[in-house]
Here is the input.
Amino acid sequence: MSTPATTIDPQKAEAFAGRLVSTLNETAVCLMISIGHRLGLFDAMRGHAAETSVEVAARTGLDERYVREWLGAMATGRILEVDGTDPEAPRFRLPDEHAASLTRPAGADNLAVFAQYFPILGAVEDDILACFKGGGGVPYAKFPRFHEVMAEDSGQSVLSSLEGHVLPLVPGLAAALERGIDVLDLGCGRGLVLVRLAELYPNSRFTGLDLSAEATAFGRAEAARRAVSDRVTFVERDLSDFDTTAEPARYDLVTTFDAVHDQARPLAMLRGIHRTLRDDGTYLMQDIKGSSRVHENLEHPIGPMLYTISCLHCMTVSLAQGGEGLGAMWGEQKAEEYARKAGFTRFTKHELAHDIQNNWYVVGK
Here is the structure.
């Protein structure tokens, strides 16, 4: 049988090929942004006049040859400006307008933080290929820096706005924390939010649970360093059976920050939250902003990135535990569906202007 003839629109084909070339270039730029962020190169260049690679290397203590090549990638990627008046020693400058999105201190505008996800995810590509062919998942232990990057991510979306935007989502919460309540954070990671809350509210008590031993150990060390160990406890724990093991009516506030969707049994986790929450308590859930329907995410500003992170981390980590594999883009419709299945009757969605990647849900019995 002959294959049906197809008619190709040459302009459409050329435009798509051009898009792919741009994608390859931008992917390369993303990798180099991650390097620049981790090494503090953007921070070092902010506010400085144009410099040669020798001057940048000398000021940062880095190897000049590597710095020179990195500067070349950043200049051709239009991240840095370059003055080639002296072709043997071009000078590079980070414009203030670009520095606002690339430099510390970490805040909602520092998009360089997100670039770090892609080298981490790329490292498990072979494992993911095997999963495509045979099912299963890639365990959390295969992502050694993930909790570190998540802590930076959380520092932007949560810590930077904790007092001004997050706590006010729950009326009266700040006053209750001041008086003294019991707080549980599930999937706490490095626990920086809990440590900060413990500093702000010394009359309250805080517990963080996470699957990662390395992350919880970091949390304990940070709590000790900041002298709040007497009111913050970190425990390494798998939450797959939380629906049956959660202590009944134990907490006034339960929080999860981008943690539900990558659980092995997310509904069990939510049912455990319902079980351990006191009748007048509140559950505050931060999770990925988006629809449960793919076609409604076509205009999402970071939709491709979120689906990619989901496939290469969130979904596969859950599947590695024999879990449901909801994925990061489970969406607000399914989030409400699962919360109500868990027994909650109040479910209110909030959006914060600075946070393009998350919804904030205030949930109650």
About this structure: The chain has two domains: 10-103, 119-364. The two ends are 63 Å apart (CA to CA). The mean pLDDT is 94.
